[in-house]
Design brief:
Order of helices and strands of chain A: HHHHEEHEEHHEEHEHEHHHHEEHHH
Structural class of chain A: alpha+beta
Number of strands of chain A: 10
Shape of chain A: globular
Strand content of chain A: 15-25%
Largest interface: A-B, 149 and 149 residues
Distance between the termini of chain A: 34 Å
Number of helices of chain A: 16
Oligomer: homotetramer
Low-confidence stretches of chain A: 1-17
Largest sheet of chain A: 10 strands, mixed
Chain lengths: 423, 423, 423, 423
């Protein structure tokens, strides 16, 4: 790794505090005259990371050697992805597939990168991929596409609230022009207002092309919010008023869509169900009925699925997506229809916030995963890469659902756990 | 890194398919006579990983060099954490803190490891930590502790369903004995049954000590479920009937608790609010009221918070927790009380599934993060490390909430985004 | 009552089965050769009602004399409102008010008719009315107006589902024309489609003018559904697919609106709070915060209010609305803002399904209640009476909320119960 | 009706203001020196009602003659059920049945009284009753029985909150003794505490025997709350903290039960489905699957049923239950299992708050309905009448579900509406 030591990794393994400058710095950190986040002002990035890590190691009496071994390009990361960096976490990366997909954007066979520490997950998804591929592939459709931000304003009273809402409707074009002036990529695709008492929520939606787009829409919303506040006298309370809704499970995202709304499905024949899953169509239907529908309804759950979160989280981490977006991304409804020829299984993901540019997509290992899927960087035309990624993830979720439903139907779950040894 | 090349990393960077054996293997993989998951049967782990990675690189026409650079102990990982491994994802790791905590288990000052690619997050949490520490530290309490699994059975009719439920209640001791026979660590702490039509859900709860415990309780549930099915004639439909509820947002977890239920809070004086957050108590209260309470209620959201998911996901990835558990882990209610002296801010996390043994906790980089927090491995007495980790994460969530509420109150969010450049 | 005995009431009080014809009929009813619902074929309405009631009295060994005493016009009722009629239930009717309202449609002072058996309710609402009136009246706005029905179709697969949805969007005008051909009053104001797996929900929205409009939109939906099924090959599964959503609490109604969406609010000064409610602004805010917001969030509730259901149910019964619509009608969010001068209290009712023609509005006693409010029959222009009714009910809910929050704040609830003696 | 004019009805029909005393009173009412609610102090109940009604008629320029015609015993009603009374609303009452029920408490054949103005409802339920009876009757079980009230307290901080909760657990017996000292009938069956931030909710559960019991448990809760506040220093914020949860749809009631939790089911053979519903088992299953399960899940609904609210509301009004309790009472999950012999249909009602004493049960017409069902007054032993009523209502809901699902399956809904003419 010597060849790229300049900007990558930290392979020197010297003892902490081995130079005079280091000694000075540790002293300053300890006495508080230098803050941890100020290290980059004093040292080049790699050195700052090392010094910070070593300081933490000293303070906590630990050895952090593995955290210090990495190969990603740091210059970019410390500016865009992570402050106060001390190294990286290495998350095991497996692949499942090939998975045959017949989407609008994803067409062909894909290997799914899954970053996870949960034993049995990759194997489970892999089995689902195999079943789908044997069945002729997963059908996938993008149903809606739009990232949202919803500032909240305080009106003086309910009449004023309605006036604010009316003003927004009447100035849609002006607001769109202003919103789009803040970005060279995105297009505003909608504004909807909601009133609860004196709180006015203005949900602004953007086509963010290949970006996940939270930042884009937040900046645009700031501009829009300012205009609304100025024109109406409503007080801007928060740029995000939780009707966006970001990183919280929320019915509004299911109903209005947020990020990429995707549905994926596959028809399984009686024969295939029997061979791959050692069960039958009626059992699959019954597991989905009693567990994913009746069970979730009884639990007051917003997730009507078996393990959507597992696949979404693992693919998000692998592909440089925001891991916290697995919350919205996994609010999935899984359906199993009994058909004459077997079953038709589908997953509906109303709110999958993904992008192929920005965020963590540029971190080297994550970028490599996007390349595995053929979706790194901006698409041609813009937006197609992100939509392709959304389609692939939805197909991956379908694979995970199929596999777990099949395993449960065949009552293999506990045995699988015992063998594969999850903690 | 030469010294531990045997079991760690992959620094050779040879061209793919550079040996005769490799050539044979690639041919077999291509023609399907060898499956990707069978590579470990043919090759030692590191070689299997390399061969698989190179095959994927070939198939997808990509270069995966960074994925192939890692230092974690592979032997353990391929058995317990990840199948079909091709390398690792490097997730940038930052630290926030020090954070002063006054919990029952966590007492003192901590640096929080946060694995994230979301720019501004670590800085945001850091600011919250600073505020909490200046305020004298976060109070934290564990309210409940119990991991659950809920098999679902099909009864013949509603009368039978009630009989099944009654049988379970009448045989609590027998079931507990059987359940506990499957584990040397855990203790069964409860069984509750729920009936919906002919579906009977048996929610089994365990004190899983320092393990997150899903595996433990699943294995025990299999045993219990078998006994119930045998004795009552109810058909076991699925070992998990979604009333557990695992990795889905669910009211049952808020009401009954699941994993570690934790609450953390801090009192901020008027003076501190003004100095650290450049705002005042009334503004903080109003942001929380209109955004986290009214906004979330209006959105039909189960998350009444600002950014709990960000902190939970980043700490989970850093500390080897199951990232998909960020879904349950982040169903947080944030409250801001107006007090005479300022505000009292609290976060309530009813369902934080964490452990310090098993799962991804043994992966080297993750283990190092646990060591930073002083919670690696089993606690003395058993369970105290996991509870300590839960307390620290809750305090971290509190820091994140404080910081974002403060930023919103001061209307700095968009500006922060612009400067720190999230995609 | 002799003057209108022909079509009203049943004052004769003869013994059951007192004529030969009666004897024959009872025999036939007993041996099953005549069904209860066939009585109207054999007898004039009043006689059929009496015969049925007397048969039930005989069968159950009861005396049903009060049920048999009524004055409403039966001809209309047995055709439109109730089959198998045996009489009426007399629900005590109280009035609260006067309540000063400043709405768009309701302007002036109103007495609210409340049909209830819940002691203390009318008194409670009355106190709220008094406070609002003293405060200068309730502000009320209609935010949205549209009754919906959402048939559900089964598509063959997810691609077909998207095609169905696309077809609907492309044929909006045709569908509207067809929909409106089924009614001389209503106007179709929207169609939105939702896809979950292979299920396609087509949510059709109508401006139903002064009718509550469920019947109107259902008939129109039948027409639309038939066209969609024919054109797309999707199978119509149910004319109501529960995304309407009718008589079930549902987030979709809060987000999209259903029926009349109304918001009402009032500013209370410190002085008024003190005088009327014997408490202060901070206490009112705190009760709302901990009970209606935090409490409801913690309970996994969709109702963020104190007693909206009480007022909605009582006014619905009084005014001939569908009592089961109190479910949707009461999904209210109550907000209490702390202001410089006191508090601003508001109620938001996203889904109030009300009408002033059709349904039970023509029953004599109910009609009289509508007249008390000045909203009986169709408005000029059409729709204004129903909207006025919605505004008045919202103001009534506001009165109920104010009163109960005030009572709780002053910790008078239990005492009030003890004195007024609810069972 | 002259014979009981003293305490019943108002048949005189004199012109308003026909006596000198009346004239004085109207003048006082108009100038505000006498309040509407003070009339009972000046006049005997019937006269007060008449004077108030005539005053309202004058003020609103309406004739309220039907409202003034009633036969119920007023003395009791004005004290217990309704303040500011001006008469009654006559709600049409139909019967459905006979309905064969095989419950623990309800055993035999019942006619269901339904008070409604919704055309087609009684006919619909009647068809369901017929199907159930032909199928051999509805099985019904009470799963849980307990009315709850949950005061909310403010603790100083989260540590204090936990102390309050711990104190409650440690003093369970003392609190029970105190709670039960406030009632001669009820038994406290549980206290559960919930903490959200600094808010502590203490959910107190009572076996309220034949009473619905809200009042009983509220009075007991006041006593308990006072003790807790005194002992712990927590401030009592509201006697009802919305975790009860009363008259709002709430997951906590589904999970913990509230009022009577009931399940009812029936097996329908292929033959019967075909004959009664003109459809088949697969269609019934599919309607329930796509509408009640997938549709409700997609709508973010808490009601997974077709028309539970219709039956609950109509029976509640008929039987003197609190109509606003139809909100909790109708949070029903309807399930349709495909079986070898046809289908098994069930309804699960986790929170049916009913009683046969107190509330509106003593109003004459309502009492007569309870007598029709054989459940008027207290049961022997105490509680059995209320439980029997709960079983009957659940069976009635089952009838309604069956009928509507069958109608939808056969696509008859719109036609039925057209014929029966709902507005």
């Amino acid at each position: 790794m010597a060849d790229d030591a300049e900007h990558r990794g930290d392979t020197t393994r010297e003892e902490p505090g081995n130079t005079e400058k280091d000694q000075v710095i540790y002293t300053q950190l300890r006495n508080g005259s230098l803050k941890l986040y100020e290290l980059e002002k004093e040292l080049p990035p790699l050195d700052a990371i090392r010094a910070r890590r070593e300081f933490i190691a000293q303070q906590t009496g630990t050895s952090l050697e593995n955290i210090g071994i990495f190969s990603i390009d740091i210059e970019r990361v410390v500016k865009r992805n992570c402050e106060n960096m001390i190294g990286t976490i290495q998350v095991p990366l497996g692949v499942a597939g090939p998975l045959l997909i017949a989407g609008e954007y994803a067409q062909g066979s894909y290997y799914l990168p899954l970053a996870t520490t949960e034993g049995a997950l990759v194997a489970s998804v892999n089995r689902g991929c195999s079943a789908i591929t044997k069945a002729g592939g997963a059908q996938v459709c993008i149903l809606h596409d739009g990232m949202t931000r919803a500032p909240v304003f305080a009106a003086e009273n309910v009449v004023h609230a309605k006036q604010v809402s009316d003003w927004v409707k009447a100035h849609y074009d002006d607001l769109r022009t202003a919103a789009e002036s803040t970005t060279s990529h995105g297009k505003m695709t909608g504004i909807v207002t909601y009133i609860t008492g004196t709180s006015v929520f203005v949900r602004i939606e953007f086509d963010t092309k290949d970006a996940m787009g939270m930042n884009m829409v937040t900046i645009a919303s700031a501009k829009v919010a300012e205009m609304i506040a100025l024109a109406t006298g409503a007080r801007l309370i928060a740029l995000s008023g939780n009707m966006c809704t970001d990183k919280k499970p929320a019915a509004i995202n299911r109903i209005m869509g947020r990020g990429r709304s995707v549905v994926a499905g596959v028809a399984l024949s009686h024969d295939l169900i029997s061979k791959v899953f050692k069960t039958n169509a009626k059992n699959l239907v019954e597991v989905n009925y009693r567990k994913n529908l009746v069970g979730s309804a009884s639990a007051g759950s917003m997730g009507f699925n078996a393990q959507a979160a597992n696949v979404v989280a693992a693919m998000f981490i692998a592909c440089g997506q925001d891991a916290a977006h697995a919350i919205d991304g996994s609010t999935c409804i899984t359906t199993v229809d009994l058909t004459d020829s077997g079953v038709y299984v589908a997953v509906t993901l109303p709110s999958l916030p993904v992008g192929t540019v920005g965020g963590g997509t540029g971190v080297d290992t994550q970028q490599e995963c996007l390349r595995i899927l053929g979706v790194a960087g901006g698409g041609e035309p813009a937006g197609t890469n992100a939509r392709k990624l959304a389609e692939i993830i939805a197909a991956g979720v379908l694979a995970g659902e199929l596999s777990l439903l099949g395993a449960l139907a065949a009552q293999h779950l506990a045995r699988a756990h015992q063998q594969l040894g999850r903690g």
